[in-house]
Each structure stands twice: as C-alpha cells, then as structure tokens.
Fold these 4 entries.
Entry 1:
Amino acid sequence: MKHSWAGIIWMDLLSLKSLQQGTVHESEHDYHIEASSNGSDQSCPDCGSTHAVGFGRKRQLFMDSPVRGKRVGIWVDRKRLRCKQCGKTFMEPLPEMDDRRQATRRLVQDVERESLRRTFASIADDVGFDEKSIRNIFRDYVNRLGREVRFETPR
Ligand SMILES: [Zn+2]
C-alpha cells in the first residue's frame, strides 16, 4: 500500500465488486476516486455472447453516496468492447452503476429515499447533482411506487 502526503489518501471507500479502487483525492468538499473495472463481465448486451475484444477506453465520472459529509465522484477507466459474435460495440457492463444517472445504484437509492422528505436543492448540494436530476429521480421513483401500489391492490 502506497502513502502520499500531497492530498492523496488511501482508504477503501468503494466496496464495489465490479471496481478496483485507485488513488483517492480529498478536498474540502469532495473525494475524487480513480477506479478501473475488474473486467469480470464482458457479455454483449445485444446478443449475450461473452466473446468480446477491447475497442478503446473511456474515462467516465459516476457520483457515489457522500462519505463523512463529502461528495464522492468516481472516475472509472472503462473499457469499450466489440462483440466478436454480432459486431456491436458497447461499454463493459458495470452492474453497480446506473449508466443513465451517471451514478452508483446505491446513490440513486439514497436519493430516492431522501427525496420523499427533503428539498431537492439540499439533496443536490449534498450529492453533487443538479436539482433537475434529483427531480427526475424523484419522479421515476414515485411513478414506480404508484405502479407497485396498484399492482398490489386486490381486485
Ligand atoms: Zn453481440
């Protein structure tokens, strides 16, 4: 384990199975974490084939749940893959990430819970989203709850 005293610290903030944590940068309000995937899943979302070859890389930012009052941003060095079966290209699957929200699934779940009892602005400030993203998560959550309630209503 490496140590550095130039604003870089080491600790296990992620505990995400699909990612390997690199350096953690800490500032007054934020943690920035470098990460790469462990490469365990290369299955094509289109045809399901597991035979894919590397087709470049891309750095992507995902927000994660705040830690000790600081926002957490994870920079993932993510592989682009090309399916040998069907020829489609795709980003390697990261099951713990919500690609649409550019956030971890656990953060989206936290925001869903919080959005029922706090203002969108205060949540947005805490997690590093804009207010519109919080409103979208809230709206989808309430719609989903509505469907579940209707589904469970006896006829
Ligand atoms: Zn395929």
Note: The chain has two domains: 1-94, 100-155.
Entry 2:
Amino acid sequence: MAQTHWIIFSQNLLCIQSLEDSISLPQCINSLGLEAYADEAVELHRDTEATLLLLDLRHEQVDATEITLASLREVMLSGINIDFQHIARAWQYAQFLRTHQFCGQCGSSTRQVKWEMARHCDTCQHRSYPRVSPCIIVAIHDGTNILLAKGSRHTKTNMYSTLAGFVESGESLEQAVHREVAEEVGVKLKNIQYFGSQPWPFPHSLMMGFIAEYAGGDIVVDGHEILDAQWYRPDALPHIPDHISIARDLIDHTCTLLKQNS
Ligand SMILES: [Zn+2]
C-alpha cells in the first residue's frame, strides 16, 4: 500500500522524526495534533509507492515530542529516507504560496490551479508560477591547475570553491559565465562546456554547471563577493565543498581530467 509522507514546515524548518540511524518524514498529522490543518495540505506528488503532502505552518509550532525541526541544509547533508528533491520542491512551493496570495497585476486574491503548480487571478486572468532563478557555476582550469575561490560567505570555514552567479535578464548562459568570471576574478575563458545541473532550494536557484579553460589574464578578485582566488594542483586542494553539491562534482571531475592529462 502506498505510504503518505508529510513535508511540514514550521518556522521555516522541516519537521522530521529520527529513527535509529536515519531521519524520516512524519506519516500522519493526527498524532502530531495537526488534524485541524488537513484542509490546508497540498498534494505534491503521488505514485504507486508514496503520496507526498505539503503543509506550511509558517510561524506555528508543532508540539509533539517525536518531532525535531531541522534546516534544509541539515536535512540535505544528513540524508533522509525521501528523495531530497521532493523536499526542495516543497520548500520552493511553500515560498511561492506565501508570496502569491494576491495578484501582482491587479491586487485581487488568487486561487490555486488544480492541475499545475500555479496561482490564478480570476479578475484579470494573470497566472503566476513558482520562481526558478538560473545560476551558472563554473570550474576553470589551465590544463594543469584548477582555479578555486573563497567567497565572502566562507571566511569562517576557509572553503574554496568554483565561481557562481545569477544569470541576468536577456543574457545567455555562456555570456553569464564570461561576465561572472570577469567580474569576480578578472580572467578570460575559452571552450566553455556544459557539465550538468542541480536544483538548489536556497531559496529557488537552478545551478547550471560548466567547465571552462583559462584563456588569459591575471587573477584580480573583486574583494566584495570573492576575497581570494588561487590556482591549485589536483593533488593539493584546499578545503572544498561537500559531496552533495554540484560544485564538488565539478571540482572532482575537473581534477580527474587534469590528472589524466598530466
Ligand atoms: Zn489580477
């Protein structure tokens, strides 16, 4: 029989249950004292094995001893018995519902569209969809070394990673790669190759990964978003991101390429 899993957000954190050596989602809201919220549930996914329901309590607290609140990052890093992508999607959808109760064009109340993730305005027919923000992320190499940078958000951890940034309106992905790299570290690129993508729910990014070759210029960091950037040999890397991120996949893949070339 198909199981029901509840993705419940309370105070912007996910409600989880810890079982021996794994964490899981609640399978019932009645035992959590949340039965009054059943009408607010949104069905996110249904297949033969499971039904996933979203309940966004916003600032309401869950008063059940078996429930722990965890940030999405904590859940992602610790692993959960449900594909994290479902949780990421639920979080983005909860954000969307919060911010689209009213029409952005005429100010009327909106209603949920039953067959797609959208809010519709019956007054002016404007329809809104959850926002997805495209970001490029790029590993740069010169055939021997990989260029890694320390962002201003990572001064405490001293972590070095690939460069990344939002795509601007009217810009191609390749143009965004050239512009971000020029702005943040001042070097030129050639042979930009698509690598792969990863949804990143902090809060609604779609990371699109590339590998590019260095084409010239000295490293000059912007000193604002990027505090330091250096060339590293694949066998002498600094502290880099966890395995769960596309940044780490890009670094691992690029280092493998460099080792094969050497
Ligand atoms: Zn409207």
Note: The pocket of zinc ion is lined by residues 103, 105-106, 108, 121, 123-124, 126 (CB under 6 Å).
Entry 3:
Amino acid sequence: MKTEIQTLESRRLWLRAFRQSDAGDVYSLLADGSIADTTFLIPKSYTKEMAEDWISTHQSEFEDRTGITYAIVLKESSKLVGAISLIRIEEGHQAELGYWIGKEYWGKGICTEAAELILEYGFLDLGVLRIHARHMSRNPASGKVLLKIGMKHEGSLRKHLKKWGALENVEIYGVLIEDWKDANHRVDTVPTSAPR
Ligand SMILES: CC(C)(COP(=O)(O)OP(=O)(O)OC[C@H]1O[C@@H](n2cnc3c(N)ncnc32)[C@H](O)[C@@H]1OP(=O)(O)O)[C@@H](O)C(=O)NCCC(=O)NCCS
C-alpha cells in the first residue's frame, strides 16, 4: 500500500502533497474570505494556524484511505494557487470532489484542469466507481467546472445547508466510471519526477 501522496502532472499544473511550509501561502489565498463564502468547510476568519492544522491532517487521511488532498501548483512559476481533494472516500465505491482556487487565478481553466487530473486518479488509481460533488446554487462557476469535467447534474436540494446563518440551496453532480471512460475525459498524464 502506498503511504506517500503521488504527484500528478498535467499541461500547466502539478498536483502535489501539501507541506507545512505551504501554510503561509494557504493563509494568504484564503484570508480575504471570498473563497470561504462559497465553500462548505472553510471558516470565515481564517488564520495561519488553521492552515497548519488542516495540512497536518492530510497524511493520516491518505493513509486511512478516507481522503486525498492536493496542492495545485503552477508548473511555470511553482506558485501554489489552490487545493483539490477527494474526500469521504468509500473504497470500491465512491468519493466526493472538492476544490478552491485563489481569487486572482479564477477564470483561467485551472480548476477544470486540476479536476480532470484528480478524476483520472480517482477512477484509475483509487478504483472508485462514482465521483460526486456539490455546490451552492449561487456559485454557478463551480457547476460549470463540474459539467466541463463530464459530471451530470443529478439534483437540487432546497435550503439544504446552513451557512453563516443563511439557508442555502445546493446542487448535486456526479459521474460514473463508465460514463467517464466513454466520454474520454482523460488528460495526458506523464510519469512524474516532480520536485518534492
Ligand atoms: C469555483 C472555482 C473553484 C472555479 O475555479 P476556476 O479555476 O476559476 O474554474 P475554471 O476557470 O476552470 O472554470 C470556471 C468556469 O465557470 C465560468 N464562470 C465563472 N463565473 C461564472 C458565473 N457567475 N456564472 C456562470 N459561469 C461562470 C467560467 O467562465 C468558466 O467557464 P468557461 O471555461 O466555459 O469559460 C473558483 O471560482 C473558486 O475557488 N471559488 C471559491 C471556492 C469555491 O466556490 N469552491 C467550490 C466549492 S463547491
């Protein structure tokens, strides 16, 4: 069984394990609250200590096979620009996709590229049969990403989430391995010797 998170590579991106030295960058990307506003788990007032605590959970989640979280890094500049995860992994069955990208990097196709890569990892390496995701209805950019990577909209849950005191509608998406293979939503990955 692998105990080290394997780095993945696409045209513009590395997906690599977070390290404690990333905590300052994570804090800078999350500090203004615009990412926390549309995510399910990120607290409103974010601190560097929260980033350190979050990063410290990744290795044990990976070893328990319950989740895998990647730093999204631009190959060109080595800049950390976001995070992408498969969480709630149920072996041989399914996993949930989640992600965020730093605001200054929105709209450049980065999330789509990273999500295609982690989907391929989920289906081919983790061996799950279904990958699903959810977003608040008021966050259509996330829905666009999910459609672009081949997911189907499976339903809407009205007032399903209580977020900072407000009830939010939530959209549910999913893709099955057979549909993903048929659609050939696969990126050209190359064996990697990425810097660690
Ligand atoms: C959602 C998020 C991850 C998207 O990241 P990104 O790297 O900008 O995504 P991409 O560039 O790959 O794709 C975004 C798509 O949404 C589209 N889009 C952006 N704003 C939109 C809007 N208000 N309505 C509809 N589509 C929108 C973009 O045009 C793009 O589609 P296109 O490639 O067809 O033009 C990013 O906005 C983010 O981190 N938001 C805050 C955190 C968050 O909401 N995470 C998801 C929680 S479910």
Note: The first strand starts at residue 8 and ends at 9.
Entry 4:
Amino acid sequence: MVRPVQTETRRGETAPGRQWLVWQLLTDALASVTTDVRPPAVLDCGGGSGSFAVPLAQAGALVTVVDVSVDALATLRRRADEAGVADRVRPVQADVEALGDAVAPASFDLVLAHGILEAVDQVAPAFDAIAAAVRPGGLISVLAGNPVAGVLARALSGDLAAALVELRGLDADFARLGPGAVQELCRSAGLLVEQVHGVGVFSELVPGSALDAPGAAEALAALEAESAARAPFSDIASRVHTLARRPG
Ligand SMILES: C[S@@+](CC[C@H](N)C(=O)[O-])C[C@H]1O[C@@H](n2cnc3c(N)ncnc32)[C@H](O)[C@@H]1O
C-alpha cells in the first residue's frame, strides 16, 4: 500500500489523490536508483514546463527534459531558474519519436513517460525509443490515462450517449493504451513490471464541496493511498502509473 504522507503539492496547493501520489511513487523510484557515486540521471519525456523535472532536480537529480514545445521549455527554464536548479535541468527540444537522435541510449537511471504516450502518433515505436534510454537496473515511470475512467466520467457528467460511444470503443482504446497494453509494451521492450497503481480513484468522483469539511482532504488522500493498488478500485482510476525496471 502507498503511504498517505502528504496532500500538498510542490506549489503549496492541496491536491489530494492527484500529483502527491505520483510524486511519492517517483521519489521512492528515485531512491531505488540512487547510488553514492553520482547524482541520479533522470529523463523526462514530454516533461513540458517541469512539474516533475524541477522538484526532481531539487531532490538532487540531474534532469533532461525532452519536449517538442518551445513555450513549455521556456517555462521550464524560468521555473528551474526560480527554484535555483537551472544547472541541474537540461531542456532539449525534440520529438520523443526520434529520441535516439537527442539522448544517448541506456544512459538514464530513471525515465519518465507521463502523459506523453497519448500524444504520439505511433505508441509502440515511441515507447521503444523511450524505454531504450533506461540503463540496465534503471526504472521507467509511465503515467497514462485510463480509458475505463473516460466512460465513467462521461456517464457521471450526464452525457450517457457519449458514455455508450466510449464504452463501445473501449476495446480499441484499451488495446492502444489501457493498463494491460502499457504492461505489454514494457515486457516487449525487455522491462520487468514492478508496480501498477491507479491514480485518482476517488478524487474525480468526489464533489469539490465535500473537501471543505475538516479532515476531508486527509481522508481522501488515505482513500487514494489505500485503493491505488487494490482492485476493483484501482481499475477505475483516472490514470494508471506503471513502474518497470530494465534487468541488469
Ligand atoms: C499532457 S502534457 C504532460 C506534461 C508532463 N509530462 C506532466 O505529466 O505534467 C504532454 C507534453 O508532451 C509534449 N509532447 C507532445 N507530443 C510530443 C512529442 N511527440 N515529443 C515530445 N514531446 C511531446 C507536449 O508539448 C506536452 O508538454
């Protein structure tokens, strides 16, 4: 079970059940690939404006961020500067589908692929290029939307016709990017899946007003932590986090 340690994001805002859970999984992953010899090398694919890259640099990592967006990389530079870690963050403007031209293979201790697989044209080749950057013994952290949650969200918003369309399209979506598909991508790339967590099991379902009650944010964080790896709750999470290691 993931321990419910905090409900604060790095920006100081309360975000129960969303980023704090991913952040905790990431900090545990970073610790598992850190040695006494050198700072851990992290690659954030589609890292955008640095929501994870900057705090990872603050935690001691040397972070390379690959993104196609010039604007996002400009924001990343500013945020890294403001946080005093500009020397630990390397922005690279490139397409992850040609990642091999931008970074050396097998050279990163921890590789993030958060919200990027949904954005590429060809998932399997892009994933293989990203996975190739993981050194032997290193980890990949994949965060992707859960197609099942899309159906539930449509229905709960009252758009039942759209929910039906999404439900009927689920098999194709699932084959492309469902949790099973991500695990299969990992195995095909020679990686061993170590952990799978549902991220955002309850937080999308709870009305915002419910969080105003004393202790509600902490209770929601505990609910998220205790359900993240517990079926059937984890199966309906809005996103799925997969952690896999390259043997060696
Ligand atoms: C949904 S955002 C995710 C940002 C960040 N990883 C996070 O989890 O908060 C997707 C990011 O991927 C970038 N992106 C989209 N397609 C890309 C591609 N083919 N190669 C590199 N970056 C890409 C976008 O510019 C954007 O910054």
Note: The chain is about 35% helix and 20% strand.
